From TrEMBL:
Organism: Ovatospora sp
Coiled-coil annotated spans: none
GO biological process: one example: secondary metabolic process
Gene Ontology CC, one term: cytosol
GO molecular function annotations of the record: 6-methylsalicylate decarboxylase activity; hydrolase activity; metal ion binding
Keyword terms: Decarboxylase, Lyase, Metal-binding, Zinc
UniProt family annotation: Belongs to the metallo-dependent hydrolases superfamily. ACMSD family.
High-level lineage: Eukaryota, Fungi, Dikarya, Ascomycota, Pezizomycotina
EC number: 4.1.1.52
Any matching Pfam family: Amidohydro_2
Top-level EC class as recorded in UniProt: lyase
UniProt name for this protein: 6-methylsalicylate decarboxylase
SUPFAM superfamilies: Metallo-dependent hydrolases
Amino acid sequence: MGYIDVHHHFLTEDYAAAWKASGDIPPGLTPPQWSIDLDLAFLDRHNIDTAILSLSAPGVGLSHLTPEQAVVLARQINEQAAAIRDAHPSRFGFFATLPILNSDDISLAVEEARYALDTLHADGVTLFTSYHGRYLGHADFTPLWEELNRRAAVVFVHPASLSPDSPSLGPTASTNRRPPPIIDFPHETTRTAIHLITSNALRRFPHVKIILSHGGGTLPYVATRVAHLTADTGILARNGDTRTAQELLEDAKKFYFDVALSGFEEPLGLLTRFAKEEHVLWGSDFPFVREATVGGQMQVLEGFVGKGEGKDGKGGVVGGIQRHAAERLFPRLARRGE
């Protein structure tokens, strides 16, 4: 059975040059090489039928770009992604890149979302976990959420890089700082997910389908704790929000989750027990991941059959993660006659 990969990055030449020129590359992270040919070869080696392309952090929020330049770069990236999809319609889709969510003028992001979804027929949009210290449930972002909700859009949430002056986990920030994907990214995903829940954004915009990266960060592990402590302490009740712990937990299970860099036995088992059926999707994190890691995580997933974690076939856990959950989100990718 061929996979559908919903966490799959690309770097256009324009973007790669802009990223390197910005000096915003985190310590320990090297921008990978990418081309259409390299990507197609990777897909073929790993039995991946289709990949949904997206731009990784930091997106177009590069320090040396003006807001106007970031808008232009986002449009260039989206049109290039659409061209790749049109040249290889069965192999690629894409999540649109949006300009930085700016509380002073959120209309720029709304306008690009409209163009990408209506004109370029993007499969969804990419949002990062925070913008200028605001997580995604912030009221400033309401106009964008309203637009996405009206369209029942798919939103791919990717962690944002921390600021350069954030504390280091290594002896020195310059010589031994852990790259952000190792520890920072999962926690940023968790924080924005909790913010979307506690701000009531998930209930105010119920038609948006949100994919959390990397197994949802630590959400499957901490969701029950957060739900009970939030309800027990009455934090939300002070603002008239009377949701119970069970209702908060139900909201946490509305998310979709990709398994990029999280397809190890323990987290995968926890995630499949926590998430709703067919809310778990395959993701590789290409080209920022070692190819051996991708192959190893595919073996773990396919081994779930023998471990009793799920049954194979159309309705099973394995088939759902490999492709069937993605087919429900993106009907154009569904195989006919199966």
